[in-house]
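[step 3/7] inverse_fold.run input=structure_tokens len=220
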């Protein structure tokens, strides 16, 4: 094999490698783009955030109820039969959280189930063509943060139970962390809502100004 043949094969291999990298980059960009939910109206983005908050509020209330059951079961004056009954309620409430996570939708788009490949990872609000889009991250609720292995109800398996005093205390610790997680995510949604509210106020104020003075130019 002469040196020209070797150079040809090297060049051809390099060409294939560059083509592979380029295709992979385009594919990744397309995937990221497809996982971004885009809005052009502030009201629609606010409706999306409001839907998120409704689900978060219900999940938080269930977590608080779970914690009450765990604290109750941790008291030593209850019998094993009592704790078994507590645990039946406990597990059913955890399943309800899984059901909410799996079914949460906004216009047929999955909101919370991170195991759903079609779920967007962020939202983008393009108010007008002159401004950069407002990017808002979507919350990621990991099953392990809630004492679970998966959100899938068909494969339901919880790491929490209140069948014993020790297990109840361990569950309280997990639930405290879950409640902290939910508080953080709700605060993030609240901050995003507030930002959009200011954008809406600015838009409405400018629109009103234009209507009152249609022929007057404004300079900053």
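[step 3/7] decode complete -> sequence:
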């Amino acid at each position: 094999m002469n040196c020209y043949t070797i150079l040809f094969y090297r060049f051809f291999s390099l060409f294939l490698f560059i083509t592979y990298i380029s295709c992979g980059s385009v594919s990744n960009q397309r995937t990221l783009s497809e996982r971004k939910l885009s809005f052009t109206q502030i009201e629609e983005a606010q409706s999306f955030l409001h839907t998120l908050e409704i689900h978060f509020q219900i999940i938080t209330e269930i977590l608080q109820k779970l914690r009450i059951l765990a604290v109750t079961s941790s008291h030593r004056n209850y019998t094993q039969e009592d704790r078994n009954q507590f645990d039946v309620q406990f597990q059913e409430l955890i399943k309800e959280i899984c059901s909410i996570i799996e079914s949460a939708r906004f216009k047929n788009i999955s909101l919370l189930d991170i195991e759903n490949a079609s779920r967007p990872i962020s939202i983008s609000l393009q108010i007008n063509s002159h401004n950069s889009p407002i990017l808002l991250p979507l919350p990621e609720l990991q099953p392990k943060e809630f004492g679970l292995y998966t959100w899938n109800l068909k494969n339901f398996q919880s790491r929490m139970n209140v069948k014993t005093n020790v297990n109840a205390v361990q569950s309280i610790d997990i639930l405290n962390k879950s409640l902290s997680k939910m508080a953080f995510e709700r605060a993030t949604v609240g901050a995003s809502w507030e930002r959009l509210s200011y954008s809406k106020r600015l838009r409405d104020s400018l629109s009103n100004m234009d209507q009152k003075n249609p022929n007057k130019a404004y300079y900053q």
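[step 4/7] annotate
The longest strand covers residues 36-39.
The chain has one domain: 37-191.
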